[in-house]
Amino acid sequence: MSEELMDNNKDRVESIENSTSTHNQKRKDYLPWDDYFMATAILSSKRSKDPSTQVGACVVDNHNRIVAIGYNGFPRNCSDDEFPWSKDEDKNSIKNKYMYVVHAEANAILNSNCTALDGTRLYTTLFPCNECTKLIIQSGIREIYYLSDKYRDKPVYQAARRMLDAVGIAYKQFIPTQKQVTIDFDLIK
Ligand SMILES: Nc1ccn([C@H]2C[C@H](O)[C@@H](COP(=O)(O)O)O2)c(=O)n1
C-alpha cells in the first residue's frame, strides 16, 4: 500500500473514532438536578395571577421525583377576577389579597401527589412564611432551598426561622450553577 493510501486510511479511522466517541459521550450542558427543581418552581410561579409577587414551589423526594408543585393564588373556585389583588388596603381589610391568597408552599403541600412528604426537599422562589412553615414541619419536609429572602426582617419570617431552627429543618439560599434556563418553544421542531 502506498504511503498516501495509508495516510488516508489512518485519517478515516481517526475520523470514525472521533465521531463515535462524540456520540458515546453524554451532553455536558445538561441541567443539574437542583437547578432543574428550582427552575420548575420558577415555571410554576408563572401561573400566579398576583400582580406584585409570583411565588412557585416544588417538592422532591429522595429519588429526585417531583411529588408536588404549587404557586400562590386564590382558593379553588374563588375567581381571580372577583377577589381583590390589592395590598394597599389595611392588612385586616376584606379588600386585601392577604385575606384570600393560598401561598405557593401551602398549595404544593395540599396538592401533593403522594400521601406522605416525609424526608422530602422543598424548592421555593421565596422564603416560607410562618404559616407555611407550620405546614412544612407537619408534613415532614426536611430541607428547604429558597431563592429570594426579600421579607427576611418581617416578624412573620423571623417566626418561620425560629420554628425551622427549633425543629432542625435545614434551609439554604439556592445558588444556581447557570444564570439562565431558556425555554423557547420554537426550538422544539
Ligand atoms: N413564602 C411565600 C410568601 C408569600 N407568598 C405569596 C403571598 C402573596 O400572594 C405574595 C406576596 O405578595 P407581596 O406581599 O409581595 O405583595 O406571595 C407565597 O406564596 N409564599
Automatic annotation (TrEMBL):
<feature type="domain" description="CMP/dCMP-type deaminase">
    <location>
        <begin position="32"/>
        <end position="164"/>
    </location>
</feature>
<keyword id="KW-0378">Hydrolase</keyword>
<dbReference type="InterPro" id="IPR016193">
    <property type="entry name" value="Cytidine_deaminase-like"/>
</dbReference>
<dbReference type="InterPro" id="IPR002125">
    <property type="entry name" value="CMP_dCMP_dom"/>
</dbReference>
<dbReference type="InterPro" id="IPR035105">
    <property type="entry name" value="Deoxycytidylate_deaminase_dom"/>
</dbReference>
<keyword id="KW-0479">Metal-binding</keyword>
<keyword id="KW-0862">Zinc</keyword>
<comment type="similarity">
    <text>Belongs to the cytidine and deoxycytidylate deaminase family.</text>
</comment>
<dbReference type="InterPro" id="IPR015517">
    <property type="entry name" value="dCMP_deaminase-rel"/>
</dbReference>
<keyword id="KW-0545">Nucleotide biosynthesis</keyword>
<protein>
    <recommendedName>
        <fullName>dCMP deaminase</fullName>
        <ecNumber>3.5.4.12</ecNumber>
    </recommendedName>
</protein>
<dbReference type="InterPro" id="IPR016192">
    <property type="entry name" value="APOBEC/CMP_deaminase_Zn-bd"/>
</dbReference>
<feature type="region of interest" description="Disordered">
    <location>
        <begin position="1"/>
        <end position="24"/>
    </location>
</feature>
<dbReference type="Pfam" id="PF00383">
    <property type="entry name" value="dCMP_cyt_deam_1"/>
</dbReference>
